[in-house]
Amino acid sequence: MADQYDYDLLTIGAGSGGVRASRVAAAHGAKVAVAEEHRVGGTCVIRGCVPKKLLIYGAHFAEDLKDARRFGWNVPDCDFDWPTLRDNVLADVDRLNTAYETTLTNYGVEIIRERVTVTGPHSVRTAGGREITARVILVAVGAHPVIPDFPGNEHGITSNEAFHLESIPKRVLIAGAGYIANEFAGIFNEFGAKVTLMNRSDVILRGYDAQIRDRLVNISTAKGIDFRFNATFQRIDREEGGHLTVHMTNHDPITVDLVMFATGRAPNTRGLGLESAGVELDANGAVKVDADNRSTCDSVYAIGDVTNRIQLTPIAIREGQAFADTVFGNKPHRVDYTFVPSAVFSHPPIAAVGMTEGEAKNTLGQVKVYTSDFRPMKNVLAGRNERALYKMICDGDSERIVGLHMIGPDAPEILQAAAIAVKAKLTKADFDATVALHPTMAEELVLMR
Ligand code: NDP
Predict the structure, then answer these.
(1) What is the pTM of this model?
(2) What average pLDDT score do residues 204-223 get?
(3) Which atom of ligand 1 approaches the CA of 305 most closely?
(4) pLDDT grade, residue 308 (50/70/90)?
């Protein structure tokens, strides 16, 4: 296809979305290059979902080994060797990084291992000064952790660095109370650190159902995690010996060994030159796009976290697929953003799809709520006093399910299948008509009252 341009498609950013878009466009016959300044794989593979989930698995052994004794296993006192887990996880990241590169190469996509900046509607310049032209430019540069601005903030790390720590700190302060904060609170706590989670507001996991969030706070507190709410940073002092003393509003100062910021992520558009192509950004610096991922410049598209729609890997992948099929495959389609399931890999995990009880009441007026509040069988024998909670939110008249919310062991694994039923607009009666699969935790989905 390329004629007056070097490429049909130049993708900036080889994360989940950029890789999918590039390889599908290439499969449709386009001449494609992808520029990546870090490592192919992006946030999810290199410093996000994948290594995080492996740490979650690692952290779970702390409880499993303890519980095993109640199941008759003679488990000697075990200790945890962080460098072993860290290095094995990083080796797996290397494996995936290579696999992603191989995929791109197999599809004939050229990898440009340099930062590029946009210089016009059809052109970019590499850090080395090479000018490259393309009929279409796809911006898939993702987002980066935001660090609040206050004195001493340079002493903290973000989740990017957490995967490379020399050792597990004894005391950790995590700032923020969203996905990353709660997931890492669980990880550090299971590895033996004293964890304090501080947030500027008095809620965790804004957007999730209130009852489910309360349950996580209760269980986390019982596990030894401290919460400090309505706390804003004043300063961090580095003490002799390397400890950090954190001063904050409404609470006493706290001395810890590590501060980790998990205070949201912002699009990577600064210094990208998008203004030279007339690409407009929103107030948060995200690329403004239409339903077909097209920016305010006709030849520039954007997908994934840089567009600030839903910051989830499977969404970026779908956007990349839709973009490539629409622009290069003559098969136009759009991403459906309704009933997107999500999960927080906290200890225990949360999973949800659709409206919370509050949202449903505000939107639909009449709603019916069914719950199951139970202690999983395994927890009972283990002597683990942790209850799971499932909530089903139904439209009052039809009893169509508009939301499902769960906290408990394996909740994300269970919800994925149930989300199909919610997406398919099934009703409470449809769930009730399905025979329970006994004994499981998932059977609670068809036994709710
Ligand atoms: P979140 O948006 O989940 O949470 C941000 C937290 O930081 C909130 O508690 C927020 O407080 C607080 N905060 C925001 N800005 C500031 C500030 N300037 N000063 C102090 N506190 C602040 O962000 P994360 O960083 O945890 O994760 C980023 C995104 O990555 C998520 O939104 C999610 O889309 C994605 N992600 C998904 C995961 C998954 O699917 N399991 C796992 C990890 C990340 P407040 O509540 O007051 O607004």
Answers:
(1) 0.97
(2) 98
(3) 34
(4) confident
Active-site annotation holds for 28? no
* Mean pLDDT of all residues in 295-319: 97
| Cβ–Cβ < 8 Å for 357, 367 | yes
Contact 82, 170 (CB under 8 A): no
Q: Which two tokens stand for residue 18?
A: 């950029």
- The answer to whether residue 342 is domain-embedded is no
Is 123 in the same domain as 223?
A: no
Residue 136, H or E segment: strand 131-139
Here the CATH number for the domain that contains residue 158 is 3.50.50.60
**Main-chain phi, psi angles of 360, to 5 degrees:** -65, -40
Q: Are 244 and 177 in the same domain? A: yes
Which pair of tokens denotes residue 110? 């050229």
Q: What is the mean pLDDT of the chain?
A: 97
What is the distance between the alpha carbons of residues 203 and 184, in angstroms, rounded to a whole number?
17
DSSP 8-state class, residue 194: E
Using CB distances shorter than 6 Å, the residues near ligand 1 are: 148, 176-181, 183, 199-201, 203, 206, 262-265, 311-312, 342-345
Three-state DSSP class for residue 254: strand
Q: For a substitution probing ligand 1, which of 179, 208, 337 has the most ligand atoms within 8 Å of its CB?
A: 179
Measured from the Cβ of residue 406, the count of other Cβ atoms closer than 10 Å reads: 29
Range(s) of the domain holding residue 174? 153-263
271-292, pLDDT tens digit by residue?
Answer: 999 999 999 999 999 999 999 9
What's the token pair of residue 414?
Answer: 């269970």
Residue 1: predicted pLDDT: 53
Under 8 Å between Cβ of 80 and 167: no
> Does residue 72 lie in a domain region?
yes
Q: Report the atom number in ligand 1 closest to the C-alpha of 49.
A: 42
Rg, the chain, Cα only: 24
Pairwise CA distance, residues 428 & 392, whole Å: 8
The single residue listed with the structure tokens 């910051």 is 311
Percent of the chain with pLDDT over 90: 99
Specify the residue for token string 């139904």.
394
The strand pair at 194-198 and 171-175 is best described as parallel
* DSSP β-bridge partners for residue 195: 172
Residue-wise pLDDT tens digits, 30-67:
999 999 999 999 999 999 999 999 999 999 999 999 99
